[in-house]
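Case study 2.
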Amino acid sequence: MNISGIVVQEQKMKHCFIINPAAGKGKADKVFLPKIIETAKRMEIEYEIHRTIAPGDAERFVKSRCEKLQREARGAYRFYACGGDGTLNEVANGAYGSEDVEIGMIPAGTGNDFPRSFGNLKYFENIELQVLGTARPVDLIRYEAVMPDLVSGSMTCADPECLFDSDHETIVRYGINMFNIGLDCNVVDRISSFKEHPLIPGPLAYMLGVGIVLGKKEGVSLEISLDNGEVYDGDIMLIAIGNGSYCGGGFKGVPKAKTDDGIFDVSIVGNVSRRTFLSLIGKYRKGTHLEDPATKDFITYRKCKKITICPQNTVKLCTDGEISMVGETTFEIIPGGIKFSVPQGCEQ
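Prediction:
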């Protein structure tokens, strides 16, 4: 490149593929790894492959590599999460805060929900289009959660009236797609045993999980404080906090969410009957459930920059498909928090 007579060496993008062999019945290893190697060699890109060995390894590797890149000032680097939404979450947490770093996703997991917000999922399965992709800023959701005491199992929260132990741990992490509490989270928990079954794809597993969970009518009691001053206190079927629109392998539960609008969407479904919820499950999958006038009686849908949830004790929180137990938790939007690479030809 020549600028005003000065020759400038244009730096090439470096590509790192994070392979999660545990995701999607081994799809990352069996299907995508050979394609990655063939495409990388054919396109003559600078690349490396890291194969994860345990939960948390993707985040540790990416964070370590980012620190090294910053020390060496090596220029632009792109990490592809070759797995599911949980793998992408780890890569995002490892990369957050680093300059000249992009992340992407090759959908090899069970749900693969975050890239669905960008159009045709097939583009994300094409390695050449991935390499030729362009990064765009997307939002992250920062969450600060009170965690159980691993020794005593007790909890604490900011409310001085909470009857929790005074010793506790608070974590700060980031989500990129969606948080779920209640039915959606319980479904993810229930269907974990289905993931390795070759004849049960993600959406079918979700439907089976819905049937199991609704059979026991598992709800949750929460106090939810929105940033507009509204407070929702009582029993609910579920709450979804979405940066992306999809969960459960293609269910558009938070249909108005956008990944780059500097705001997240909150959907609170009241404690409705099994029959009512099942009558809307088709619309819930398509994302048209809010158009049904009947839902106004039991669905509260808001756009927020910050909310706090406080359970009576602990509650299961599903973060990008991965479950943990939390107490009081605050969620806050980080506008343009990370650069996400979208494959060439893929439109949001």
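Residues 27-43 form the longest helix (17 residues).
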